[in-house]
Every structure is written in C-alpha cells, then in structure tokens.
C-alpha cells in the first residue's frame, strides 16, 4: 500500500485532496439525486468543486494551528444524507409518507434491497463527516462561516422545511379550506340488485406506461381490457396520496391521508385505528349488506393496512401470513410476500366462495409485481417474456398488466363476474424505478378503468385525482349519492366539476399544507397529541351536508 501511495503526486499523498475529493463526490451525487438529473452530473459538479478548492486553497497549510472543535454542520449533513437516501429510493420525497409509516408501523416490510442501500448510505456518511471535520479544523475560513453554513443546511433541507411549514400553519391559522368542501359519503338510494364489486389495485402501475412512444407495448394488455369498459385519462396525484395506504384511502374515502400527528395514543405501538373519523367505501357497502374481503401478498401489519380494512367494514382481511400456508410451495415468496400468480389463484378461490353465498360481495386486491424499484415478476412471466434481468421495471409492468388481464378473463370465463363492477386502478404513481427519466419526461396519470355492470365502453379525458374514484365507483354501481359527491371527490360520470378542474392541482397541494380541520376530522376519536374529539366542528355523517363552497 505504501508503494502505491508513493507513486501518487506529492499533493495527493496527504489528507487534504482526499478529503476534498470525498466532499466533491458527495456534492455531485446529492445534486444529481435531488434534481433528478442524470448521474453524469456528478462529474462536472465534482470537478467544479475541486477547481474552486484549488483556486481558493481550501485546506492548504496556514499559519493558524488546526482546531479541535467539532463542526456544527455534522447533524445538518446527516439530515441531508437521510433526505438524499429517500430521494434516491423514492424519487419524490413525501414527508407525509415518512411520518405515517413511522406512526402506523413499519414492521414486516419487504424491499430488503433498499435496506442494503440504506446500510451503504450510512457507511458512506462516515468518510463524508470525517472529511468535512478535517476541512473545518484545518481551514480557518471554513471555521468562521461553518455555523452559518449549518443554519443554511437546516433551512434548505426539504424535510425540515416541510415540518416547519406545517407547524407554522397549525399555529397561525385554522385551516378549513378542504373541510368546507368535504361531503360526508352517503348512499341515498340503492339499486334493486346491487352489483358485486371487484377492485384490483395494481401496485405503481400508472397509466403513463400507456404511452407507446416512451414505453412500447408494456401496457397493451390493460389497454385491451379498457376497450371493453370506461377508461379515465387524466387522474392525477395530489399530495398525501402518493403511497399505497394513502392511495387506497384516497380512492376509498375520498380524502388525502394526512398523518395522525407527531404524537398519538401510544408512542411505542402502531396506531390502533386508521382514519376512524370518516366513512369509506367499505363502511358504505357493509351497511348495504355486502360481504367484503381484502387480499394482498404483503403483510397486512405493514403501514396499518390490516387496521384500516378491519376498521372500515371488511369481514376478511388476508395478507402474507394468512395466505402463505395455502400455497403449494410456501417457501416461494419474494421479499414482500406472495408472487402475483399465487395471489391471483387464491383470489379466484375467494371469489368462488363469495359468489356461492347469498347477497352481494366485494373483493379488494393489491398486487406486488411492479413494486419499486425493480418489481417482482413471477416465473409465469418468464415463460412468456424470457429471463428477467432483475432491474428492468418495464418487464415487470408488462408482466403485471398481462396477469391482471388474464385474471379478469378467467373470472369472466367462469361466470364469476355476472352483475359485477370491475375496477382496475393503480394505487399511486410509481416511485423511482429504472424507467424514471422516461416517466418524468412528461405528464403523468394514474390507471383507472371500470368494466362491466352494463357501462358503455368509452374513454373520458378528465382533470381529476384519485379522490374522485370513490363517488365514481358508487355511481357506476348504481347508487345515488349526495350531489354526485363523496368526501372531496366528484363522480367522473357526472357533469360536476372536480376540485382540480375548479381550482387546479397546485391550489389543492398548497391548501393541504395549511389544512387542520380535515386533518382533525380524519382522526376524530384518536388521541393525537392533545386533540380531543370535540375539537372537530361536527361529526362525520352530519358535517358539510351542503354543496361545497365556491370561490
């Protein structure tokens, strides 16, 4: 090792340029990740940093002795490391998602690959912190400005900015813009023969993949299904609806998922209930005599999924632990749980059971094949598409689209979809995947289509959000609801304008940062750090029974 070091130029044999190189590479990687530019940006950013260091002689010998002080910026740098890791993992960092998962429980999660990446990030932070400490201790100019730098790093970190902005809103105003537009979900009249309901959530399989110029034919199987039903083009994603639980709550409850608060009923246990203050699709259907089942390949304990469904009208909630013993090969799992071919085979069995009983039924299903960052395609897809390289998300998208298509065809062929509305939807837009640059190159929208129940096949261009799915599904099933509205959603089968059409998505997102009244409504009855139930102006079922206010 000594001989190798001896071959380097004299200027590179000391710690100065090694420390500067480490900091330059870290700055380049952070710039590329946060701005979502190509990772080749790392090269010019690092080069520019080293040129500045050379010109300004950062860390060079000076008459001032080295200091033993610890930089104030170490903690802000660690927080930035966390943010860069989240941006690298998910593409867009959603503070609400981070808080909710911490509150609802993150045990029994999958995605072991990201745990490994997190470990690499943690180990990488050590030389970064050591290099910065060396620079501050050996360059008096850096010591003089370092405290200001610490404040700047804290103020510029999007994670802390989001917390501060939300806290300022709570202190300064009683935000009720969204709550004033909330219409409590209510069925006024039911059809004589209510249809069954099958909801297929396709993990992260957004409609953006239907663009053949960017993604070739990977979406074609879903497009073929859509030709037989109603396809909605333009279902956008507002803030606090961009992860699985938030997406399901938006589409079933008509509201964004605002986390319960920094404090809740127990700091050592997950939330006991999930959005207990609002009625959702499951509550409404259970009141109409539906038997409801949820089935998902992942653990139902993760992120409060089981608690949500159990608390909103579902009699059977089946996750990885419930379904694994029923597999022919119980060891054939991915890091999250069941592969979709096994999940769909068990779904067929459950629908047969439900269909054999009197009364209407509803089954909600969540796939895994396209879960970021790479997807989990089963062997069934390898037989049709060839070997999976372990990274190409488009392979997984085509696989998931084909399996959903085949599942619907199989159920229809067995006569299990008579008098049944089939809903196919992505739970949310995809997070960072191998096709990230193509996905973010243009407008993005969620998958949402309706099949069956005598709907006239057509395509509808809308400006909507996943919150509009709840009233749309209710009306597609033949139910009559208040003013074509439920929650913050508007039926896309009606002529009523959606909130996005009236106010724009940027206005909705901006109001979400200020909203406190709807937040309290969601968690009414749950102790979230001092908020008592009577803090809510009115109770669900009684509140906002007038048309939403216009501006």
Count of DSSP strands: 12
* Total domain units: 2
Q: Can you identify the CATH class of the largest domain?
A: Alpha Beta
CA radius of gyration is: 26 Å
- CATH architectural category of the largest domain: 3-Layer(aba) Sandwich
Give the strand order of the largest sheet, numbering strands 1, 2, ... along the chain: 5-4-6-2-7-8-3-9
Distance between the termini: 72 Å
Sheet with the most strands? Answer: 8 strands, mixed
Determine the structural class based on helices, strands and strand pairing: alpha/beta
Unreliable stretches: 4-8, 167-172, 262-269, 529-551
Helix segment tally: 22
Task: Please name the fourth-level CATH homologous superfamily of the largest domain.
Answer: Alkaline Phosphatase, subunit A
CATH level-3 fold name of the largest domain: Alkaline Phosphatase, subunit A
- Give average pLDDT, whole number: 85
Q: Estimate percent helicity.
A: 40-55%
Question: Which outline best applies?
Answer: elongated
Strand content: 5-15%
Membrane topology: Multi-pass membrane protein
Protein name: Sulfatase N-terminal domain-containing protein
Keywords: Cell membrane, Membrane, Transmembrane, Transmembrane helix
Pfam families: Sulfatase
Structural account:
The chain has two domains: 2-172, no CATH class; 179-261 and 275-535, Alkaline Phosphatase, subunit A (3-Layer(aba) Sandwich), CATH 3.40.720. Helices cover 44% and strands 11% of the residues. With 551 residues, it is α/β, with parallel strands linked by helices. The strands form three sheets. An eight-stranded mixed beta sheet has the order 5-4-6-2-7-8-3-9, sandwiched between helices. It is built from 22 helices and twelve strands. One of its GO terms (cellular component) is plasma membrane. The chain crosses the membrane at residues 72-95, 115-136, 148-164. It is a multi-pass membrane protein.
